[in-house]
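Running low. Any example?
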Amino acid sequence: MYKSIQLDYGMGDLGGFLDEKTLDIHFNSLYKGYLNRLNKVLTDNHYDFRYTKEELLEHINEFPIKDRDAILYNLGGVLNHERYFLGLSPSPSLKENAFIEKLKEKYGSIDNFKKEFMEKALIVIGSGYTNLVMDRNGGFNIINTSNQELPDFYGFYPLISLDLWEHAYFLKYYQNKQDYINNFFNYINYEAINTVYEEKTKKL
């Protein structure tokens, strides 16, 4: 069965961004709920868990049509949340690396990137995510996805993912989504994202 990711920070370590109660509910209840439901529908199909979660997308046609929606929805809930949580850090560093260099090359500066990301995130209607994604040529774009859609469906790989479902921020920010987004920029784990970026770049 697929296992939960392990966070390298505690539930109370993102206090300037997210309160302990919000993070605990989000990670231990909502994210793990998607994971448990995904494992159940796969186990019911006698799946042997031979693929990574990302590879599972490429093999969805191996499952009965009646179960594909449940698999895709819960898989989206798992991967979107994992990318969000793993992209956070209590003490992020803006030390130069390949990812930051590429980000500045695309947007001119980190501040310009934040501005464009903010503008995109503020137009999300209902539930969804804003993602900085890399395309198959290594180019960067900022896109929105709805509900638990995955950027992977469209040939993109997300490097930065921001959860914009209300459960991600409402207890701390209420309806003030803009403050939540502004605070998010102070907790982006650029080092972890650089590691993913370099791994994905090697496969282009």
In short: The longest strand covers residues 128-134. The chain has one domain: 19-204. Residues 19-204 form a domain with the minor pseudopilin epsh fold fold (CATH 3.55.40.20).
